[in-house]
Amino acid sequence: MTTIFDDPAQFAATALSGFAALYARYVRPVRGGVLRSTSGPEGKVSIVVGGGSGHYPAFAGYVGPGLADAAVAGDVFASPSTAAIARICRQADNGGGILLGFGNYAGDVLNFGVAAERLRAEGIDVRIVPVTDDVASASVETSAKRRGIAGDLVVFKIAGAAAEAGRSLDEVERIARHANARTVSFGVAFGGCTLPGATHPLFTVASGQMALGLGIHGEPGIRDESIVSASELARLMTDRLLSERPAGVHRVGVVLNGLGATKYEELFVLWTAIAKRLADAELDVIAPEAGEFVTSLDMQGCSLSLIWLDDELETFWTAPCDSPVLRRGAAIATSPGRDIETDADGPLSFPTASPDGKRGGICIKRLLEAVTQMLRDAEDELGRLDARAGDGDHGQGMSRGASAALDAATVATAAGAGSASVLAAAGDAWADRAGGTSGAIWGLLLRAWSTALSDHDPIYDKAVVAGARLALDSVCRLGGAKIGDKTLVDAFVPFVEGLETAANAGKPLPIAWAEAASAAKVAAEATKNLAPRLGRARPLAEKSIGHPDAGAVSLAMIAGCAGTVLVHAEEHA
Amino acid sequence: MTTIFDDPAQFAATALSGFAALYARYVRPVRGGVLRSTSGPEGKVSIVVGGGSGHYPAFAGYVGPGLADAAVAGDVFASPSTAAIARICRQADNGGGILLGFGNYAGDVLNFGVAAERLRAEGIDVRIVPVTDDVASASVETSAKRRGIAGDLVVFKIAGAAAEAGRSLDEVERIARHANARTVSFGVAFGGCTLPGATHPLFTVASGQMALGLGIHGEPGIRDESIVSASELARLMTDRLLSERPAGVHRVGVVLNGLGATKYEELFVLWTAIAKRLADAELDVIAPEAGEFVTSLDMQGCSLSLIWLDDELETFWTAPCDSPVLRRGAAIATSPGRDIETDADGPLSFPTASPDGKRGGICIKRLLEAVTQMLRDAEDELGRLDARAGDGDHGQGMSRGASAALDAATVATAAGAGSASVLAAAGDAWADRAGGTSGAIWGLLLRAWSTALSDHDPIYDKAVVAGARLALDSVCRLGGAKIGDKTLVDAFVPFVEGLETAANAGKPLPIAWAEAASAAKVAAEATKNLAPRLGRARPLAEKSIGHPDAGAVSLAMIAGCAGTVLVHAEEHA
């Protein structure tokens, strides 16, 4: 809903004045609208556009060289007055006549039409082009009755480019009408919007439903359906528009428009599916745009506009323009990008290892096999523990990371890598596949540990213990956590200290490791029992403040699992 | 909520590929991110930015000349992997070293930090600059712990400009750190967001509340408060940031950022209040931006970022750049705008009128007095009638329009205007002040009627009757409604026909008018009793389809009122 306002009655006028203050490089405010703050050539046809407010960037955001010369803004969802249109046209007149562009709604048709008559009576040549792109609003046979939606931008852009190119008013009108005749749009809505100060939505869409063809002020659509996948939505929108494809058309300009609360990344996802369907239809896509071009406050939904291009329309569609919302043409001179040499993660070759080093690598791989199996088994348990404090994905992430580490270790050992290289490769793979902070921590931990090992020597107990300390230091330094923060550091510190103490006391590694793992387990259990410090229902927030972190538990589990493998290996040795 | 997706697990990657396909003029896709599609000069420092997805235009939308050379994108709200960062840095390297920019979050600090270490080991000079602008996330004494929000854009923009200007890596790092140290942001949230595929919001804000300082992933804020007015919100945000204003600063760069569902016009309204407060604080605002720069899916809320400019920072803040989301510098050469000659509604002088004409003008003014009073009295009744089908503002609009018409007629008669000029001025004023479609219709109706009158002759009965027909034709032609559409045409047609029939039968005007007004009233009553054709709860939609229109009723009331005045005038004559 619309939340930020002072006096709802002044919302549109205040928004316009704020816009003009922000974008003074493009516009200057006049009563009821904005004018370009720069001049076009004397005698250039002026493009004046407008309609109700609440649709930004329609229409003030279209003002600038190569696009519109002025925009007239009515109240929210209401046509501007005849007087405002006429007044701003007089101000925008360059002596070349005026083209008035607006969406085909009763109030706009009236006010722009009457303003045009007034201005003609004053001796200014004015033409009107109501945009009629919304295929859902009337049949193809009665296309002059169709409403104007995001096709507004397409038609105005092309008219603006024709005017910028010095075409006469007759020509600009012809080209704009031609662009309008070749522009079709189809929209869906997932949710309505609320006017400033209103307590109830102006219109709604039932939860889980999408309204096909619902207008940007809630005008009736074709029908409601259950919300579908992006691919299915792309099919639905594209097929409807392709059914009006004229013969012989092989190029389209595209605007994929979000209505307000449907966000960019959703549009980009949708675009991948739309692009595929357009390619399947053997249409070349020229200068597509996806973003917010005609909104309806915070309405949820989107529309797809296609313009069937010919050479003339393509020239104007791709011509430079410079407005707050749409810019074409380079502002900075550049040269084409260099060839990218590689899309790989760096060298996959490993330093030559000694037989001892290779044996060490295989030992690490076996450890990872056991840890991976254990983490797969513990995935649900860790997930449940994490869900108490976070988003519940810790079990999945750990399992995914360990599997990736095992895969990398398998590749590395098969390539004859030594223990240091195998562990480093395993750490990198863990970080890259597990994702999130814990994945990065584990990658860091293993990689730092690997620097104490060698590809040539056997895995000496001393190196393992030294590596543990390096791993801990690295995690603390780059991760920024200290003991008591309820992260895996809480379990890792007693583990490393226990390992060092036992090793310094001369105990063999399997014994020292088992003792250290026990200490880690005790510490991890302690974090489990910490009471939440905050009662607010903000999972991510709580995670960073006082809830137990599943990371300490999983570290202790891994330490325990690895300890069992070491003891087992010792017994078999 | 996030509605458009296929596989939620692939949402971020698919969105990135869609983005890259749309913006090929700026970027080319690589695994895990995007690279500039154009080359900077050999040896230029590369700016590589990144973080989790779900924040578009952060970070891929920042890529282009004068800004970033590459962006690395993690999963939704998750840091990109160390390997992806390192890989894309290798590809983005121009031989001048790399500056890594990212928001100060644990996962990002880790992954970017470790990637930097890996790259340094490979011989690439890499610096990291975590952005720490969010004043709500830590105290000024521990500002290095602050999170990064929309200040990301500010810091990256300045770093990008310094790199574009050929500065060395040492210099770019120094400037970026300086920019970060001088950038502060404060945000409020009105509502949370829902991850793709999730059935529940990731976090929420209680209805009617705003969460001060809530993080863009739901990290804890300072406190919740009731939602306030735009002016109060501006005060709250601005004061918090001004409390950290360094001594001697007189210029600020500004980013007013919407989080997703808080829309442009709300930001523009807020900006007017913020600009006033900054001016009161004697701060010059340099190149402000308001829009969506760091979103959080469809989270509702906004943040204000200020950078305390010095000469060096201002140079880089205002330097040209060209990315999908931010462009500075002209793409088209322009000259300053012409002086605007007038901001008035056209000439307020009237043609010289004869005494007969002036008497006619005064007669029209008296009619308008009666009609205005009647409409004021009927305002509520017409409002209630309109609310059955529309937005309930018909009574207000008619009353406002008639008052404006009366004012204009008063001015015109005082200036000695004749009947044609008085009625034309009244019509224009009605249209301009009443707003909406009915205001435009009434303006048109009166203006068309005026063309049958004269400023020189008395108001002949014949002229009044001819004017009625002109008015009807004009309304039908420009308004596009025909009888049966349940608009005022339904009452106006029987009125005009009744008037013509009675006049042709030789009846004097008051009699003819009264008969015509009766016919209009009967027709208007009939429209009242029409049952709604549609049952869907979409007020605006219903209005345009089948509900009775209050316009027919108000026309009949006006006709009746005017008839009474005419009869009364006749009796007094």
Automatic annotation (TrEMBL), chains A, B:
GO biological process: glycerol catabolic process
Domain DhaK residues, every copy: 7-326
Gene Ontology MF, one: ATP binding
GO cellular component, one term: cytosol
Keyword 4Fe-4S found: no
InterPro entries in UniProt: DhaK_dom (IPR004006), DhaL_dom (IPR004007), DhaL_dom_sf (IPR036117), Dihydroxyacetone_Kinase (IPR050861)
Keywords: ATP-binding, Kinase, Nucleotide-binding, Plasmid, Transferase
Gene3D superfamilies found in the cross-reference section: 1.25.40.340, Dihydroxyacetone kinase, domain 1, Dihydroxyacetone kinase, domain 2
Domain DhaL: 362-564
Pfam hit, one: Dak2
Name this polypeptide is given: Dihydroxyacetone kinase
Organism of origin: Rhizobium grahamii CCGE 502
